[in-house]
Amino acid sequence: MTSHSFDTRAVHAGRDDLVDLGVHAVPIDLSTTYPSRDSRSEAARLDVLGTGAGDGGLPVYARVGNPTVARFEEALADLEGAGAGVAFASGMAALSACLLAAVTAGRPHVVAVRPLYGTNDHLLDSGLLGTSITWATADGVADALTDQTGLVIIESPGNPTLDEIDIPALTASVPEVPVLVDNTFATPVLQRPLELGATYVLHSATKYLGGHGDAMGGVIACSEERARPLRQLRFATGAVLHPLAGYLLLRGLSTLPMRMRAASQNAADLASRLAQHPAVTRVYYPGLSGPRPAHHMAGGGAVVSIEITGEPADVIAAVRVFTPAVSLGSVDSLIQHPGSLSHHIMDPEAREKAGISEQLLRLSVGIEDVEDLWADLDKALSW
Questions:
Q1: Of 15, 156, 210, 219, which is least surrounded by CB within 10 A?
Q2: DSSP 8-state symbol, 61
Q3: Strand ranges in the chain using DSSP code E only, listed in sequence order
């Protein structure tokens, strides 16, 4: 599929064999085990599969892999320009596998740049997985490295202030250390970090990849060499993606370009209007909120954050078109207060240093009519 356009690949990736199978919809394989009368060969296969490698056959047991999930992994890898995709039960499980891979390789030190998603920040600060952390600015990452550094972690655009990082400049400054880029906000529609020098691309697939708020998952796109220890860790820890979620996420990819562009257009429109609203003191949106250190994204994305003069809880209570809920990336628009929800788990001082004020609201803009969205926000902000 790599010779076709991105939009065509989004529709067809992971489905190339369906005509030969005589089906139109992707089959959902719910098996937890895959029987065989040849136990000797199955034992030999498990020796291979347990290393994270594949042999082209069925997975023996669902914790090793699943055919439906494999289709989603293949499709996401295609869209990100990666050699492999490795899917997990959640975005946090995907990040955990990358951290554990660094630990097991004997390089448990991590350098990260804020802001990140709040629970990612908490996991790194807590050291729960045996890692240690140094927080750095984007241009200070190289100076923060030690001989024990096994991973650099960034999110661009960052959650929730939409800070952008010059990914090629950062990766060039740390050529010997793997760099993980959380690409959840941009998606491969707007940005493909592997093309910019990243080692791993992380998605909370729960968000835009699924796109409908009904499937939880995480996925890493990387080289096949990097994928093998991640599969091995998934096999050992059991952080597997359910086949039904794999099916829904693969289905979501087929409309991802159309959804992402429509939502981004709405977000850019709302960001411009919000910048003129008397109750809004600051708008965070790529291309609007100040000078950009990089222009990797093909658009500003579908998230807008604002600081307001009033009480954030009152605005959240007043909306009727926006859904007051944590998370993002659905076809419907969501609004939430990061200090109370997505970033509440962070230390308050760290939250403040990351620029996440108590007056900050994060808007995940969907594909509704932009005039309805604006009327809803304007009324809630003027309450």
A1: 15
A2: B
A3: 84-88, 109-112, 132-135, 149-155, 179-182, 200-204, 218-222, 280-284, 303-308, 323-324, 334-336, 360-364
Q: What is the percent of the chain where pLDDT is above 90?
A: 91
Domain boundaries 256-381, CATH class: alpha beta
Catalytic positions, written as ranges: 63, 117, 182, 207
**CA quadruple 164, 170, 172, 174: dihedral positive or negative?**
negative
Q: What pairing do the DSSP bridges indicate for beta strands 334-336 and 280-284?
A: unpaired
HSE-CB at 101 with a 13 A cutoff on CA atoms is 26
Nearest to 226 by CA among 125, 151, 162: 151
Q: Which two tokens stand for residue 373?
A: 């969205």
pLDDT in tens, 206-259: 999 999 999 999 999 999 999 999 999 999 999 999 999 999 999 999 999 999
Domain boundaries along the sequence of the chain: 256-381
